[in-house]
Amino acid sequence: MTWMIYGANGYTGRLVADLAIDRGERPVLAGRDPAKVAAVATPRGLPHRTFDLADPAAVDAGLRGIDVVAHCAGPFSATSAPMVEGCLRAGAHYLDITGEIDVFEAVFARHEQARSAGSVLLPGAGFDVVPTDCLAAMVAAELPTATHLDLAFQASGGISGGTVKSALEGAAIGGRARIDGEVRTVPLAWRRREVPFPSGPRRVTSLPWGDVSTAYRSTGIPNITTFAHLPGLDRAGQRSLGLSQALMRTRVVQRLGQAAIGLVVRGPGKATRSRSWVEVYAEATDDAGRSVSAALIGPDTYELTADAVLRAVHVLQSGPPEPGAHTPSTAFGADFVRRLHGVRVIEPARR
């Protein structure tokens, strides 16, 4: 079977391509810019194609003979829909590395179309949101009566330009949470709490993470808040956050910010990634006051993403789940995260 990395000239796309080569695979590399794609593919000896997602006919030609697409070209708010449509027309499986709530919701809305096409749609096949989604499924299985779910992470290391661009877009929207089964807009940093990460307790602040969408589909828990340990945000006041959000909404700030990011943000190097780590915490509670928590420790988020994408592609090629739109845990089971290199799960515990 033949699979493709679209956005192969981007930071994460190159990481996925290099890991694929290390594991003896030869994906087709693709993207919009012929020179940039060739600059990645030619020295690696990999086949490559170029096509613009704005041209459906070009997408159809570009996906001819492709069974699985690993879509790594963000921001996914702009690129996911045309690639999903192309995969549905081609009957190919689709996965991406988004963390954008609205993108998840849009992909999940295509569940019946995917079933009819025989395609699996798997948004969030990287750090956004494999570890959090799998932990969420683990604690939900231990507490079927759960009504609330808190998910939190902290990570070291750097960040890529694509991730920063998506974060800039998200900052303009504000906070999001799942409340009584619905995705709702809430103030930025509307909740703060302390989380017992494996390395020790940390104060975390709510932010709009992809699990607001995905964890609901994986667990059915109607109230979900996502958090991160971000020292600057943890100390910021509600007034200053409100002013920042209003500024981020302006067209000129978005335009200038995206341009600046493209020029100066390159993503962490190999040495930085080798020293980096991530910790994830999940806690489910019910109305009777019972709770179950679990945690994990993993490698650098970009290394984890590349590994998760490769493993997801392998499963989609060899024994895919039922066609339709999936989260990582509904596609591969909650234990999928245990297969990832360098991940250690701290088993669910009741309180």
UniProtKB/TrEMBL annotation:
Domain Saccharopine dehydrogenase NADP binding span(s) in chain numbering: 4-121
Q: Where is the signal peptide?
A: none
The answer to whether keyword Nucleotide-binding applies is no
Q: What UniProt keywords apply to this chain's record, in alphabetical order?
A: Oxidoreductase
GO MF annotations, alphabetized: saccharopine dehydrogenase (NAD+, L-lysine-forming) activity
> For this protein, what is the EC number?
1.5.1.7
Q: What is the name of the protein in this document?
A: Saccharopine dehydrogenase (NAD+, L-lysine-forming)
